[in-house]
Amino acid sequence: MSKLEGKVAVVTGASKGIGAAIAKALAKDGASVIVNYASSKAGADAVVESITAAGGKAVAVQADVSNAAQAHGLIETAVRQFGRLDVLVNNSGVYEFAAIEDVTEQHYRRLFDINVLGVLLVTQAATKHLGEGGSIINISSAVIDVETPTSAVYTGTKGALNAISGVLANELAPRKIRVNTVSPGYVVTEGTHSAGIAGSEMEAGFVATTPLGRAGQPDDIAGVVAFLASDDARWVTGAVINASGGIR
To answer: Fewer CB under 10 Å: which end of the chain, C or N?
Structure first.
């Protein structure tokens, strides 16, 4: 039997990149997956089509995780569609760098609303349905270890996420719900291509400082998440796993 057979997972921000790879990996392991997206319906539909073509179960659901009503609606849709909830992957996030002189309230609020508030809202909704054995996996970033210049706000959101994850691991442990964090290093995605990072000197710099000597791929992260979602990780909670090629 597949490791996640009979389980239901919600993956936020799953229309592309790391989120899409996670959704596909969980479905491959037997989970029924809610593929959340904020604006890219075409991307989410493509992920669902890929999963169903391989014999899995998935549904695309639009929701802005930083909006309380929509965040709660996302979870309610998952339970209504598949009857239960076992795994939540908080992957939704935005990154935008700015020198301290260029930081604005809008920049700050956009990043913190999606990267931090969104996690709190979706998790709040999910804990109403997660039972014993439930797993919450938050996607952070190795940027908090690198402390990259011009990333003060983005790095701040991920530092907050790590702290929140640790608190929730303790808070939800009496209910036997596990909370863990995965911190990717540099990963090649649609986002890095559109931002002009892929193939650039910046990317070369990232690779040069990665001990394993290459850029990460979305599947490198998805495999770690699939492990944490499964009963193989039943004794793992409150952990921060650096899936970063050795960056720390």
So the answer is: N
